[in-house]
Amino acid sequence: MTLYLTRRPRLRPTLRLRLTLLNGILLIGAGAILVLLAWLLVRDALRPTDELLPGTTVVLADGRTLDAGQWQRQLVDTASRELLAKGLVALLAISAVAVAGAYAVAGRALRPLYQVTSTARRLGEATLDQRIGYSGADDEVAELAKTFDAMLDRIAGAFEAQKRFVANASHELRTPLAVMRTEIDVTLSDDEADVAEFRRMATVVRDASERANGLVDALLVLARSEAQAGRRLGRKSECDLADGTANALSAVRREVERIKLRVETELEPAPVVGDPGLLDRLAGNLIENAVRYNHLHGRLWVRTGSDGHETWLVVGNTGFEVDQADVPGLFEPFRRGGRERTGARGSGLGLSIVRAVCDAHGGSVRVIAQPGGGLEVTVTLPAAAVTPVVSASAAVTTGVLPRIAADVKAD
């Protein structure tokens, strides 16, 4: 037989118990001081024979005759004993009531803390909708409860975003796989399929596999960028954003010529310190999006520069109109203008990667929706001449930016 020894539950020095003891000690000490002061005052005040002549006697109600001084001493001793006895009894009664009241009041005041604890214990993926909902006085406890509820709102939002991301990623991966399987099954079930049909099927399968491979690559880049957020870059070297931007423009030149875009560039030196691969992807994603969502005979303008403290990359384009309120949604994975972008062109992760790369390099992203359609995206990073010591958040803001004074020349 195995014996299991368990510890007896000990009395924990909880906050409620400490507050009760503190209030009890303060009240008992104050009561003791009052009793002591009353005792001293009585002893000093009961001096009725001090003004009588020596040898004066008093006759008591029972017929006894006593010296006035002796009678005064007996009176003071009796009054002092009765005051101390009754005062101590009253002090004990008041102390008991005070401790009980302090325990009840402390429990009521700390009730939101118990709600925080019980809510935290019940929290799980299926119970993130629970909140404290404190409705008491507007004090520090209420502030704590509101802060905890706000934290739960952020956690719930993060879980929902993660679920949405996984669902959209699964949908994006399932689509090319379904296309490949359908093409293969249809072609193999056709007994009269010839070489041309098999070539067509192979072309469709290749395109679908390239789409799936592109999505996987984008997911890996996004995961790599987010893992290096907060200045935890695995690779840091000095590079020029202007060079990566020029390479990205060269990569989309054929598409630019196809839709007859007017490209305006001013590529001034833009030195930064960071991961060259991620920075090249940042510039490439911005320019690819600017070309992909442009229209025939549209415009594309690109500027880079630095003032010694900050380095910037500005990519603007014409295109379909985007509501300024929908701009933050562009940086969510698989979303475009506040709408799901699964099934659309591209992986839907371009701007998400841009924000993650900026965050990893201590930069920021700002976006302006153009009045006639299109966007202007400004990426700001610390220049190579300075060494950032804190990480910055790549927050997406929608306010109007001061234009960078520059003479724009046509490419």
From TrEMBL:
The reaction(s) this protein catalyses? ATP + protein L-histidine = ADP + protein N-phospho-L-histidine
Q: What sections of the protein cross the membrane?
A: none
Q: Which GO terms describe its molecular function?
A: phosphorelay sensor kinase activity
Enzyme class, UniProt record, top EC level: transferase
Keywords from the UniProt entry: Kinase, Membrane, Phosphoprotein, Transferase, Transmembrane, Transmembrane helix, Two-component regulatory system
Query: What Enzyme Commission number(s) does the record list for this chain?
Result: 2.7.13.3
The record's subcellular locations are: Cell membrane
Q: Which InterPro entries does the record associate with it?
A: HAMP_dom, HATPase_C_sf, HATPase_dom, His_kinase_dom, HisK_dim/P_dom, HisK_dim/P_sf, Sig_transdc_His_kin-like_C, TCS_sensor_his_kinase
- Pfam families, from UniProt? HAMP, HATPase_c, HisKA
Q: What is its main location?
A: membrane
Q: Which GO terms describe its cellular component?
A: plasma membrane
Q: What PANTHER family has UniProt attached to this entry?
A: SENSOR HISTIDINE KINASE TRCS, SENSOR HISTIDINE KINASE YKOH
Full protein name: histidine kinase
Species of origin reads Micromonospora sagamiensis
UniProt lineage: Bacteria, Bacillati, Actinomycetota, Actinomycetes, Micromonosporales
